[in-house]
Amino acid sequence: MSVGTARHLLRSEPPMIAIRYRYSSQRALLNVIRQLANELRVPLICMGTREAREALLSDPQLVRRFEGFELPRWQRGEEFYGLVNTLLRTLPLRRPSRLGTKGFDQVLVRADGITANIFTLMTALAVAAIRSGQEEITTADIRRSDVLAAPLDANRSS
Questions:
Q1: Which residues, 6 or more positions from 40, have their beta carbon under 8 angstroms from its beta carbon?
Q2: Among residues 24, 57, 100, 154, which is most buried (max CB within 10 A)?
Q3: Structure confidence by residue, pLDDT tens digits, 86-140
């Protein structure tokens, strides 16, 4: 007999829950999350900014269902290089992308060590590489990219 597990991931695009919606709209969205948790009967994983976490935890029922924690910012080192190399291998590019230390450092600085920013940057770079016909990401591409050029205040939490 095989036992499967299911999880559903809800990701708040900055600053969806906290800023874009008025209080009544925010309450309606939190109600939907509560209903999903009740109906699906599987663990829900919610990701978002600090503001989204605060909005989620403002609901007394959801406070009991979710444990909040922050991911630390990525630091230069083997784990970070492994993350970026894994992303580079999984992106749908025809040519392999090989970044040196300078390229990794530029990704880390541009993304401010925030996981979501790293994924946003690498995805945008892959799209640009495909559109240009280059089909690979280079250190020069990272340097020239305007993706995440200005830090997003709403995305400052990990």
A1: 6, 8
A2: 154
A3: 999 999 999 999 899 999 999 999 999 999 899 999 999 999 999 999 999 999 9
Domain positions in the chain are: 8-65, 78-150
Report yes or no: 4 and 40 within 8 Å, Cβ to Cβ.
no
Nearest alpha carbon to residue 46 among 59, 38, 56: 56
Q: Are 73 and 116 in contact (CB under 8 A)?
A: no
Structure tokens that stand for 94 in this block:
């025809």
In this structure, what DSSP letter does residue 154 have? G
The amino acid at residue 22 is: R
Which residues lie below 8 Å from residue 127, measured CB to CB, with a gap of 6+? none
pTM for the full predicted model: 0.64
Find where tokens 């340097």 sit: 143
Q: What are phi and psi of 9, to 5 degrees?
A: -105, 130
